[in-house]
Amino acid sequence: MSTPEARPAGPSADWARADVATSAVGGPSAGGVPADGPSRIEDARDLVGVPDDTQRLWTPHRMAYIGGENKPKDPDDGEQCPFCAAPGKDDEDALIVHRGEVAYVVLNLYPYNAGHLLVCPYRHVADYTDLDDAEVREVAELTRTAMRVIREVSHPAGFNLGINQGPVAGAGIAAHLHQHVVPRWQGDANFLPIVGRTKAVPLLLADTRRMYAEAWPAPEGP
C-alpha cells in the first residue's frame, strides 16, 4: 500500500485529497482490504460528479435550527426567551393555538411530527417543581385538551408526552418550561429520521395552527 504524502497544517485546495483505499480496478472491499491488487490514494477532485447509490434529501432550512438561530444568547433573560415573547405577538405570527389563564399552547417551530404542540406557562420558570398549583393544573388540562384536538383533527395512532428537563435531557430552551405533545403514526419513524436524520413534515405550520385553533373547544361559561 502506498504511503500518503505528509500534509502541511491548515486547509489548502492543493491538498484536497481523499484517503480512500481503492483497488487498482474497483472500489473498496469489506473491511478496507483491497480485493484485487494494491491500493492507491485518489485525488478527490477527480471524483467530482461521479454518481453513487446514495439518495439525498436536501433540507437547508434546518440550518436555522442547527445553528440555534432562535435561541436566546442569555437563557436566563426572560426578555430574550421566545416562550416569553410569543404571547405578545398575534396568534398567527407566534403560532399560538390557544391562550389559557396561566399557560398557553403553541406549535413547535421545529416539529418532530406534524402537529407537534408545546404547552407553556406564561411565567418564565425552568423547573417543573417550581410551577405553582394553578400552573400545574392548567398545563395538565391543556395537555389533555391538546390530545383531544389532535385526535379529532389529525387521527394519530398515539402520542409522546414529556418535558425535557435541562439541556442534558435534550431541552432546546431549558430556561422556560414546556411540555411536548407529539402525535405519532404507524411508520413515522422510517428510514428518513433513522438513517437520514431528517423528518418529513407534510403540513405547513400556519395550516396546522389554524386547524387546531378552530377545533379547540370554546371555554365553558360561568
Automatic annotation (TrEMBL):
InterPro entries referenced in this protein's UniProt entry, alphabetically: AP-4-A_phosphorylase (IPR052908), FHIT (IPR039383), HIT-like (IPR011146), HIT-like_sf (IPR036265)
Residues that coordinate or bind substrate: 108, 180
Active-site residue numbers: 178 (tele-amp-histidine intermediate)
Keywords: Nucleotide-binding, Nucleotidyltransferase, Transferase
Protein's name according to its UniProt entry: ATP adenylyltransferase
HIT domain location: 82-191
Lineage, uppermost ranks: Bacteria, Bacillati, Actinomycetota, Actinomycetes, Micrococcales
Signal sequence annotation: none
UniProt source species: Brachybacterium aquaticum
GO MF term list: ATP:ADP adenylyltransferase activity; nucleotide binding
One Pfam short name: HIT
